[in-house]
Structures are given as structure tokens and as C-alpha cells.
């Protein structure tokens, strides 16, 4: 049975590799064809340009001849001679240029003959005038010039029409070759991706084929998650370098051409990052890993900023975007503003993509009041190309677009509407579209959003305010040279000093010999990864002075579970790549300001905002609950550990972790998180040490709470 599975795996892998090789060959050949057809198209464009230049010079020689006959000024003779010389040179170039096409070569020879014959006639008139027979020359012009010049112009027209036909044919071939090359490249990428996924899944599951179907399914899901995490890390790391350095470069003095180039790099990087995020979103949604946040936000500010994001692309197409929010819609809400913005961006970008002029209307209204929330309705109305009925029926499916021609003309993956539909449904809403071909479209969705209770603006402003006097020496544990350059540029701009460690071993060596105020820790590094380095720091291996140093994870991983893994190892916070300058600045400032403090007073301050009328009473109740429940929690943990009832232990630990966070006991929260993980490997000694550390930290927190109340 095992041998049969191996044979099938080898056969499938061999077939996939052969298919990938064939597609690669086709992709290479199609790319060569596109390059060659593009050269022919450019060749025809050069012939047209050259022909126009000859025609203009012939017309100029005619004008110069008439000017001389009428005025006898020698200046016209010079213009005439220069024009004739230019035409003769260009005719020779034209003959060489069209030598690839027998028909056009014959046409060019005929054109040259007609033009030179006309020049002979013009020269005869000039010679007659110079010899005193000016009236004879003028009579000749009156009798024959119109007819003779018409012959020349007709010959030019005939030649250009033939070349334009050839140009259109070559442009069509180039266009066809271009899309075929793109298709082959895309197919090659997809085949490579799925081949890698297939081989990975086969190799990982081969030794476990006797397990039950449910266990195999769970393992496949875990493998997929890890694969996406690795893909995210590998792709986001270089993108982080591109976006970070582009932002830094854009802040330097650039000329117009350089600025345009930087803008193009930035837009392309953001587009690629958006595509990666869409693929990860689909994977998260399908695996049930997508979680919606619940944070306070201002609806009008969110919508206005979203509108400003798409305003540039709309203006480039001459499209006006209008925004209407009904007067009865409040401004403060509790929900996931990032996902609401994502839905709006998908729908607005689609409206812009499929419109060529006119206007786009974004309307928001209240559809109904509920107990603690309300239902909001959003409409995006455009005057674009519209959608037919069969297309509407498949529009919200993954990777679906109008048709093949739509994909070719407008581009896109077809993921945006599918993601929007699933996000709307996750918010308890519905999404739909009404459209007629040629009449525009109306996309609409409804979501349920909880009402806000406090001033978000003050919260946001306070969270990003940085003390200008704040200083710090920072260790950056990062092995990627590009990311080091990005970090160096950002930290220099922030005014902090820093040192780099290229691997985990170097990071430990620097910590043993230097003094640092904060660590930016990459998760994946050679020698020792960031998680193991952090665990050693927290265990005191590096020295007691480093055990409480703030550690911020800086990683390209974007899959659910990464935050938990960072906290489990002992890290204090998390920043994902590509790194946002503002986000990194806020994180560093926060942890430098709270260094060596066991209590995060910002959490208690938020309680004051939530219950401003009776904040002292609320804070007192929360602190009393913490102090009264803590001794029992410690006792429950020790009793569960003594009985080795790890299920009860984890239940108590998880409940008490929430209690710690209610008062801002962040270090206690981190210890609780690590306690939950020690039971998974049945490490009783490590668990007992962590409980002792928890009780010791509790005494410190009590003192901090007393100082907070006294302030």
C-alpha cells in the first residue's frame, strides 16, 4: 500500500514537472513572439513617421518654388534646395526600411519616381524664371501644378493607407502575442504553486496515511496554514524593503522623472501587496480563521479617507466621486473599520475600473435601529459599462469576472467581490448588485454595527503622540540586508540609536556585552530564531538586566497564530511587514515610555473615558475584582497542577489572563500565556517556576495600582 502511494506520488510529481516544463517552453516562445511582433509594429510606425516627414518636405518645396517665382527672393531657393535634399535622403531611408515587404517596396519605388518627377518639373520652372522666362514658368504652374500635385498626394495617400493596414495587422498580432504571453506566464505560476502545494501535502501526509479521515483533514489544514505563513514571510520580506525604501526615497530631493519612477514603484508595490493580502484573506475566510476586530472608529473620517484613496485614479479618468451621508447616521461606531474600508475600496475601485467618465455616487443611510446597534446601508452607483444578467449570477464567486474579454481589458483577479461578500456576511449583512448593460451599476450592502460610546479621536491622538525627549538605544535582530536598510532609515528619522544582529547568536552576544532599551526581533533568523532568543532572554540566560527589556516582534508572517506564538515566547508586542513608519514609531514610543513598568496605565485610562460620569467607582470595582480573585486563581492553578488536571488548569489560566488585562497587568498576562503553553508539553517544573514568577509579579502590580490610585 505504501509502495503504491509512493508510486502515485512520484507519478503525479513527474506529470506536474513535465507540465510545468511544457508551459515554461510555451511561455518562453510566446514571449519571444511578442517581442518580435512588437519590433514589427515599431517598424511600421517608423515607416509611417518617415513617410509623413517626406510628404511635409515635398509640400515645403512646392511652397518655396511658388515663393521664389512670386518674389524673386533667393531665400526661397535655399528652402527649396534643403527640402529637396531632405526628401531624397528620406526616400533612400524609406526604401531600406520597407525592403522587408515586397509590396511596400514596389510602392516606395513608385512613390520615389513620382516625387522625383515632380521635383524635375519644379526645377524647370525655377530655371525658366532664372533665365528671364518667369511668365512662362507661372503659366506652367497654372496649367499643370494642381493636377501634378494631386498625383503626388494620391501616391502618398495610397502608400500610407497600405502601411496603416500593415500597422494595424502587426499591432493586432502584438496584442494577441502579449496576452498569450501573459496567459502562459500566469498558468506557469499557478501550475508551479499548485505543484509545490501538492508535493508538500503528499510528502507531509505519506507516513500518516493510516490515520482517520478527520485527522488527515486537520493535518492538511495545518500544512496549508504553515505554507501560507512561509509564503507570506518570503513574499512580504522583499516587499517590505521595496515599500520602505521607496517611501524614504520619495522624501529626498528628486527631479520630475525620478519622482515619476518612484511613484510607479510605490504604486506597483502596493498593488502586489494588495494582491497578496487578497489571497491570504481568501485562505483565512475559507479556513474559518478570519476574525473581525471591534474597535471604535469615526464613520465620516473613515469614508472620507477611503474616498481620498481612490480620488486620484478617478480624476485621471475624469470621474467625479460624490459622497452623501444621511443626517440621522451617527458618527461613532464599534466594529472593524479596516474591513469596512476594504469593502468600500473594492467596490469603488471596481466602479472606477469599469467607468470611462461621468460620476460615481457613494451613499450611506440608516436602515434601522436595534438595541445596542444599528443597520447601515451603503450604495455605490456608477455610470459605467454595466453588467448582464448571466454575469451578475457568478459575480461574487472567487476568481470570477465578467468574461475573458473583461479580464483582458480591465485586469484583476476576481477576488475583490468574493472577499467583500464574505466580509459583509461576517458582519451580519448582505450584498448585491443591480445593473443593465450600458446603463451603469448599483452595488449595495448592509451591515450591522454597534454604537460607539467614547471619543475615538482623543484615543487615537493619545496613542500616537510621541514625547520628543524620548531616547533609546535599540537592538535590531534582522538577517535580511534590505530590511536592515529600511529599519536604519526609519530609526534614524525617529532619532533613536541602534545596532544590528544578523542572527540569533549575534543578538545574544550583543545583549551580553551592550546595554539596550528595546529589541526589534525578527521571528525567522539563522543560528537561533527570534522566538528562541526571546525565551532565553526571559529565562535570564542573557542576564537579569535583560529579562524585562521590551521586545517587539517584526515579522512578515500574516497568518492567525503568529501573535500568540510571539506572546508565548515572551515578546511584548507585534509589528507586521511591510512596516508602517507611524505604527512602528507608536509601538517603540509606547514601550520605551513604559519600560520596566508592570502596569499599563493606558488601559485604566480608557476605563475613565468609557465611564466618565463615575470613573472612580468603575476603576475601583475593577481593581477590587482583580485583588480579590487573584489569591483564589493562584490556588486553583496550583491545585490543578498538583492533580495534573491540565484541562482545568488551562481554563483557570485563560480566565485569569483576562482579569490581568482588565487592570493593564501586561507582564502578568504574558506569564499566563506562557503558562497555558507549558501544560501542552507536561512540563511541571517549568509551570511551577512560572506560577512563582506570577505571584512575585502580582506583588509589584499591587504597588503600581496603589500609586495609580493615589495619583
Helices and strands in order, then pairings?
Elements (H helix, E strand, L loop, with lengths): L1 H70 L2 H24 L4 H29 L3 H72 L7 H38 L5 H31 L8 E4 H18 L3 E6 L6 E4 L1 H17 L5 E11 L3 E10 L6 H5 L10 H7 L5 H11 L3 E7 L3 E12 L4 H9 L8 E5 L3 H14 L2 E5 L2 H10 L4 E4 L8 H10 L11 E5 L6 H8 L3 E4 L4 H13 L7 H10 L4 H29 L2 H17 L3 H13 L5 H27 L1
Parallel strand pairs: 2-4, 8-9, 8-10, 10-11, 11-12
Antiparallel strand pairs: 1-3, 3-7, 4-5, 5-7, 6-7
Helix pairs in contact: 1-2, 1-3, 1-4, 2-3, 3-4, 4-5, 5-6, 5-13, 6-11, 7-8, 8-11, 14-15, 16-21, 18-19, 19-20, 19-22, 20-21, 21-22
In short:
With 711 residues, the chain is an alpha/beta fold. The protein has helices spanning 2-71, 74-97, 102-130, 134-205, 213-250, 256-286, 299-316, 337-353, 389-393, 404-410, 416-426, 456-464, 481-494, 504-513, 530-539, 562-569, 581-593, 601-610, 615-643, 646-662, 666-678, 684-710, and strands spanning 295-298, 320-325, 332-335, 359-369, 373-382, 430-436, 440-451, 473-477, 497-501, 518-521, 551-555, 573-576.
Structure explained in plain terms:
The chain contains 22 helices and twelve strands. It is α/β, with parallel strands linked by helices and 711 residues long. It has four domains: 2-185; 295-453, Heat Shock Protein 90 (2-Layer Sandwich), CATH 3.30.565.10; 464-594, Rossmann fold (3-Layer(aba) Sandwich); 603-710, Four Helix Bundle (Hemerythrin (Met), subunit A). The strands form two sheets. Strands 1, 2, 3, 4, 5, 6 and 7 form a seven-stranded mixed beta sheet that branches. A five-stranded parallel beta sheet has the order 9-8-10-11-12, with helices on both faces. Strand 4 and strand 5 (373-382) form a beta hairpin.
